[in-house]
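PT: before anyone asks, these are the final sequences, not the draft ones from last week. 469 residues across everything. Please model them as a single complex and drop the result in this thread when it's through.
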Amino acid sequence: MPLLEVKNLAASYGALTVLQNVNLSIEKGEVVSLIGSSGSGKSTLLRVLMGLLKPNAGEVRIDGEKVDYGSRSSLKSIRDRMAIVFQQYNLFQNMDVLKNVTIAPVEIKKRPRADVEREAKAILDRVGLSAKLKSYPDQLSGGQQQRVAIARALTLRPEILLLDEVTAALDPELVNEVLDTVRELAAEGITMLIVSHEMGFVREVSTRVVMMDKGQIVESGTPKEIFENPREPRTSAFVSKILRH
Amino acid sequence: MNYTLQYSVVLQQLPYLLGGALVTLQVAFLSFWLGAVIGLFGAVGKLKGNRLIRGLINAYVVFFTNTPALVQIFFLFYALPDVGILLDPMTAVVIGMTVNTGAYLTEILRGGILSVRRAEIETAEVLGMSHLQSLRYVILPHIAKTLFAPLSNFFVWLVLGSSMAAVFGVEELTGRAINISTANLRTIETFSVVALIYIALTVIASAALALVGRWCFRVTARIF
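LR: through. Structure below.
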């Protein structure tokens, strides 16, 4: 049974349809990357999965369990199982690094503070930020903030980690420090759904690449298939445009 | 002009005046916090309420920010008895200043709520926070930080504005100064000392607020 299964999903912003007939399934341990030009619905798909935008048709199942996006308890349960990291990091400006990472497990999930802090410190150490526990977001670089955001998501112990263009807002020299962190997570077998414009990275870490256009999935395949031998003209047009520079 | 300044008669009354300063602080403190509660409801109502609620809040804000607080308190104190509602001076003043403060704070707090980035609220949501938790952990700390300076200024303004209470016989700092000066006829000495006490009050209040801001909300406010 796939860990995440999306069937005939559709969503819209008012009258504007942004996703239609999206089908996708992700097995445990897979790293699936969504590619496609801006406005193709990649980030919207992640927002729908997290319940930030209500779908108007279709269904989402986690471990076979159907998600009801209209019910609070169902939403709570998917947010227990999936975590998302945003392009703009979205750290809480009024909290230091450790507090940003521990607030949800301690205050929302009511796990013991000492345990969570020990775990958070280990995760922050893993992303290279053990010296910044008491720093505030405005005292960190973009790359450091994004690594804190990844640590915050990991402390929630998600079964699936969603990464929404996590390097798009970073200066070029900071991109790699974040990508290295994601590479390590992929190597550890964490299930991930990634939206990225870093094609070299997508090719390297993904087990599967999914091409989207105009709110629909155009094709999906191994990185090799998508980048070297795409079946769909829209995919080959996109890939050749991206790989040209 | 051969007027000889005699401060000793006023300084003998210093404990009495300082007692008045305490009443001044009480009036300002009560009106500020009660007004803040009204302001918070007003701001949320104006942002989230339906047309009727928004219209009512708008009318309230427009009316109370465009009429003098003194006139509002006059109304409470002198006009309400005609319909059988008799308020003692302190109550009338605190109610009047609270309602007036609530109108101003509705607008100030509304601005503060609007300044919270939507992304931070969404993040709170995906981390599993309820509306109340996101208000407590994300929105209110953000507002406290952004609005710390205007809110501190407003508090200082209330400390000074509470001198209106003297008109209704509340024995706060100005009220007690009037009492003393009518007895000792040392108007210059009395009111110059009172002015200094007001300055001390506002300087101490501003410094204390700036320190609270620094410690609690990381506001980089200058203390002096």
